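Lecture 7 notes: from sequence to structure.
We start with the chain below.
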Amino acid sequence: MRTKDIIFNTLKNNKGLVVRLAVYMLFSTLFLVGFPLIGWKLLENAETLKASSIWLVLFALSAFLFFIFDNLRVKTNVKLCNKVNSQLQNVLYKTALNGDFRELEKLDDAYLTKNIIINTRKITLGYMENNILVFINEILVTIAIFIAAFSVHPIFAAILLASLPIIYMILKAFVKFSDKFYDKKMQTEKERINEISKKIGNIKNIKIKNGIQKEENIFSDDLKRYSKSHIKNEILNFLSNKSTRALLSAVLMVIFISLGIILMNNQENWSLGIRNTEVRDILLFVLLTPTAYASFNKITSCHLSPLQISTQLEEIDQFLLIRSEIKEGQVDHFDDVRILSFDNVSYSSNKANFSNVSFEVKKNQKIALYVEPDSINDVLANLLNKLEKPQYGSISINDCDFNRIDTKYLRELISEIIPDSKLTKNSIKENIIYPFEFDEYQYNDVLNKCLLKETISRFENKESTIIDEQIDLSEDERLRIIWASALYRDGKIILIDDSDIKNNETKYDLIKELLKLKNRIFIFITNDAEVIKNCDKIVIFKNNEIIEAGEIIELQKDKKSFFSTILKNKK
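Predicted structure tokens for the same chain:
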């Protein structure tokens, strides 16, 4: 689906909002031009108290209705554009979250964020709201003003029309003072972009934890808050600008209505050569002229050419071509996870190259994948999480190839602790349970297993304490929280990459607690001999090749084995 299709479909699905906007535009224009015309008629009947009272009531009513319908127009205008903006951002954010990881790795995080936030905003809030819809409304206002003007006094109307370009040049000098809330709005935008950028940079961790739905919900809630904030800022800005203009118009209106009534009822002023109709005409044009100038200025300031957003449209269209990793009709349930197998798996990229890797690990077995530091550990974890795929061979669970297993379900099966497992700026509790719902029994169980209750009790807000730069958490305590998050997932496959975890008592205590779990498959990507001793099997990689594999007990007996050498070197 292309960007234009998303926009048109959103407008189509919000036909009621489009119709309401059109109605509000027509009525706000009608009453904007109507109340000066009623004032003009009021002067005609100024000598008759009853008639002038009726017209005065109509004058006040039309001014009030203009205020109501113009506010409704602005609110509906912003709401419609926010609908389109929210839909575009939702589609793009889902595309990123569900995108093929290898494709996403080729793209810069700033590029992804730019498309989700900046490009969509330029198209909807910039081009649609501030150009297209403004142009349509001001064209209606200008046409209505000149219909009224030429019907009342063609000469004054012609003068007004001829003066528009001159006034336009004067008004251009004051454009920089037009937006009182600009700085605050841009600061909010900057903070939001930074937050989205962090999330985009954390897509791998989100995918691994199966937090896509949670992130979609969080993003949707954030969009609602942003939309409300945007509507509020726009309305406040609108009221600020309009109220100033309305105040000046009201002052002029009172002065000229008073002057007109005095002149029409003072026979001595006939010597000035001013007839009643001319006084009324002057008053009408005094009221219409500022609005005509303002509308003309807005019309000339609008940029209607689609070329100004052509780059954004092209970039978003390219973004939407990112291939999804989610496929329909796949296996989404196993009664039991009995065995995980690598069968002649080959992989090649700028990160690592290996071929014909084969091993299997059964339920209640523990396997160590011995790798050299900073070698293929990241690739092995990515393959197990289906973030990447082998070029040849197959990875399977219960003899079911990974390609046939639903990606989200596969990640539900895996509880993982890897270098990308990081704490987020959220509460301790939310970091542990993310992205699942709260289960009190399970939550307390992992707190006990990871010895976190004493840590939590130190803080005034307990488990609701936000983890940020100022929080007093040791490295070991942070590790325990990450470990608790993995245990809370209660996966059937436990995957631990300890390449960035210090070899200390905390690590070994946590592993000891972990190994008490029953009916699990344990996979350790490690080069720590103490961890390997707890395993049943080992596969040793060196220079991206398997140089040795087998049962730990058998390899320990063989003093010439590479595994025996590892144990000697670690002593």
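Points to note: Strands lie at 339-348, 353-362, 366-370, 392-397, 400-401, 414-417, 493-497, 521-526, 537-542, 545-551. Residues 212-265 form the longest helix (54 residues).
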